[in-house]
Amino acid sequence: MFPRIVLFCGGVGGARMANGFAAAMAPQDLQIAVNVGDDFVFCGLNVSPDLDTVMYTLAGLNDTQRGWGFRDETWIASRRTAQLGGPAWFQLGDRDLATHLTRTAQLAEGKSLSAVTASLCSAVGIQHSIVPVSDQPIRTRIRTADTLLDFQDYFVRQKAEPVASQILYSGASEANLVNAVRLALDNTHLQAVIIAPSNPWLSIGPMLAIPELKTTLQRLRARTPVIAISPIIAGQAIKGPAAKLLGELGHEVSAFGVAEYYKGLITHLVIDNGDAHLAERIRGLGMQVHCTDILIPTPAEQTRLAQELLALVSSTATA
Amino acid sequence: MFPRIVLFCGGVGGARMANGFAAAMAPQDLQIAVNVGDDFVFCGLNVSPDLDTVMYTLAGLNDTQRGWGFRDETWIASRRTAQLGGPAWFQLGDRDLATHLTRTAQLAEGKSLSAVTASLCSAVGIQHSIVPVSDQPIRTRIRTADTLLDFQDYFVRQKAEPVASQILYSGASEANLVNAVRLALDNTHLQAVIIAPSNPWLSIGPMLAIPELKTTLQRLRARTPVIAISPIIAGQAIKGPAAKLLGELGHEVSAFGVAEYYKGLITHLVIDNGDAHLAERIRGLGMQVHCTDILIPTPAEQTRLAQELLALVSSTATA
Q: What residues of B are in the A interface, CB distance below 8 Å?
């Protein structure tokens, strides 16, 4: 397998972009690398929310209305857990539970997270390659005025309400890229790296905190397009707490704030047509700007954006 | 709480006897101590099958036909786990899962197994006191000709088919009785210790392997009835592999074999009317014999046997 495109993603925006590329590209041409900073242990189970969201989305099993988990899900175990006084702030559907039970058992047998993910993807009929960005644990933590919160505690239990002062990525500095991603970034068939419209701080940051990835992108961008898609449109996050977080961390709440975050790492930022007025300022940061419609809630829009980005990559190659 | 009766039990036979005593006695008069040798970790979850069987039975939630787990149970998570290639040899119902999720989470928070059990029992409305015999792990293992099997591997995955040459109770020699049981056995209100018609080697053995319990019973029996009920009737186990195991371990497959196992620890063995011909040989082992109908599949029969045993205790006290 010699992927032409490596896509880094996390969260719902990431899964949508991954779905678009998977629809637009043959399995051997695409490597999907997924954030593991949200991973955590809940009731003894190894839960990997970003991997699961990508997996369920590509398998067509995801609930598009709720935005996470299985469609047609049941909640028998979770509801009863609440009745028993057990933790119920993170809802585990009965079908979803099977993913975590399987992952936990296979990790306990000594399998790597990437091997477990490959096995799960195969079981749900996904042909494209989805890997965790690293097989080593990376844990995103949120510093607030008075405490340090685990990611899911912040994001789910406290509904991202606490004011963040700093985002930490425990374990990232000792983590390595999984081999599939390292090889894909190194090989001569690589045409572009895509960074999905995921939350830069929460979904992409944990991956960029892997020293190997950051230096690789810095090196790559001299010869290969590294294209990020803004998760911010008109000062609003497409989904989730990205805009709130940008403000709290002292950044401009706009596609320009996103551009500043990726400065030195990307060659192109894709922004919404409505944000075209920011293009010139963003170009001033040393990157090209591509304006288009980046709101992609439906599979058709996801495929359209992926195809448009692939065309952008082709035009860059021939330019 | 000054219990008059301490009941040691495990397995389905144990849960039936516990149910009978719970129906026949006020909560403050009874202490139920449950085997933990079957406990294991499955897919990351702390499963305590014997505690759960007693708990579900006393709460009236148990499936009496299947003999384990919840009645009206669903199997969504377990079936999907099998589809995903995860371990499915131990079936976890969706409602049952909630018990294990809650237990695992609370143990991870640092609660003891007895505190978790008290909390679960309270949540399902049980007023009688059910405790694990110990808060330290005891793990039953089965030695066969060529390997050493974890209990659930032997009992569930391999359906108790391997030929056992020895039963080991890892951890038992370092385990202590939980305080509730220690206090109940020590206090002057104690009228009798009952050992349920559970598998002596698999359900009672792990408890008797706690040095503190064995020496306490040896001391107690001089002044207090210690009454075991045979799980063997007419050379057959009432349920499970007790008869097969007795033979494999070189014992007589009868209530007499059970009596030999308990020799020096009990004052009375309760055997089935149909085994009355064994009474004289059993008495020769230094214990009294009480013959009655010991098959107790229904709650009414369970209560009847418990009441009969309480009458036996009373008659012993006045004798």
A: 41-46, 74, 76-81, 83-87, 92, 94-95, 97-99, 101-102, 104-106, 108, 119-120, 123-124
Partner residue opposite B95 with nearest CB, options A80, A87, A124? A80
Contact A197, A229 (CB under 8 A): yes
CA distance B193 to chain A (A): 31
Q: What pTM was computed for the model? A: 0.94
- Tokens 């090209």 correspond to A288
User: Which residue stretches of A169-285 are H helix?
Assistant: 179-186, 205-208, 211-220, 242-248, 255-262, 279-283
ipTM for the predicted complex: 0.91
User: At the topology level of CATH, where does A5-318 sit?
Assistant: Rossmann fold (3.40.50)
- Residue from A290, A292, A298, A217 nearest A259 by CA: A290
Q: Tell me the CA distances in angstroms from A237 to A254, A257, B100, one per residue in order.
A: 9, 12, 38
Out of B86, B102, B108, closest to residue A101 by CB: B86
Collapse the DSSP code of B306 into the 3-class scheme (helix H, G, I; strand E, B; otherwise coil) and give the result.
helix
Looking at the complex, report in whole angstroms how far the Cα of residue B186 sits from the nearest Cα belonging to chain A: 32
Q: In tens digits, what is the pLDDT along chain A, a chain of 319 residues?
A: 689 999 999 999 999 999 999 999 999 999 999 999 999 999 999 999 999 999 999 999 999 888 889 999 999 999 999 999 999 899 999 999 999 999 999 999 999 999 999 999 999 999 999 999 999 999 999 999 999 999 999 988 999 999 999 999 999 999 999 999 999 999 989 999 999 999 999 999 999 999 999 999 999 999 999 999 999 999 888 888 888 888 899 898 999 999 999 999 999 999 999 999 999 999 999 999 999 999 999 999 999 999 999 999 999 876 5
| A106–B86 CB contact, under 8 Å | yes
Determine the residue of chain B that is closest to A122 in CA distance.
B84
**B295: alpha, beta or left? (left if phi > 0; alpha if psi -120 to 50):** beta
- Residue B282: CB atoms within 10 A of its CB come to 24
Domain ranges of chain A: 5-318
Cβ contact (<8 Å) for B45 and A42?
no
Dist CA A251 CA A281 (whole Å): 15
